[in-house]
Amino acid sequence: MVHLNERPKISQDALYLEDTYLGDVHTSVTATGHDEAGGRWLAVRHNIFHPQGGGQPADRGWLGECEVVPVRHAATGLVVLHATGSHSAGLDDLSEGDLVHTRVDAGLRLLHAALHTAGHLVEAACRAEGWTLARSNHFPGQARIELTPPGTGAQLADAEEREKAADRLRAFIAAAIADDLPVTADHDDQGHRVVRLGDVHAAPCGGTHVRSLADLRQVTISAVKLKKGRLRVSYTADHRTPR
Fold this sequence. Notes:
Helix content is 21%, strand content 36%. By secondary structure, the protein is an alpha+beta fold. The strands form 4 sheets. The protein has a 6-stranded antiparallel barrel. Strands 9-10-15-14 form a 4-stranded antiparallel beta sheet. The longest helix is centred in the middle third of the chain and has 23 residues, at 106-128.
């Protein structure tokens, strides 16, 4: 069990940041503990689970036969696994050093990766309009980018002008997907992870993403709304059948 004042920092590899398409891994338990409600959690040495954050929902998956959800543990910085529902007994017999098999829900992972990548692409199209990102949400059924237009945005108060802007966004997105721009990640001088869509977009990001834009399908701008000086661009996206 973790005793924060007695042990050194625990090492954990964030494999979900290295390979979106890595669906399972054999690894070992590196730490165990209990949350404030008494629920047990485990951390594994090689972690393939993305915790909720950065506008992206958490992965779902399994540790052995136990269904789990990952959570960022504030005290240690580890991504820890909690059992879902009534499955907590599946974690009780495991200890540090035990070998385990972990798997992610592949379909959900690909949906999240597609929505997050599409969100960056929508943002890139909006930046080309001179709009500045305010916040984003990449959850299924809620995906949207909120932006601040230059000046007062008074022109976009007109529904016809907003639809013209939406058409320009759609054209930008379609062209980038047709060009199959690569999606890559590197680190800047401060050690921040930066995700790039070819040469049209770069942003600090800790999410999962598709390999290239041709992996996206059905990227649709469903609405462009203006409220209190802020634009909300709602969108949907999915992942093509993996190549």
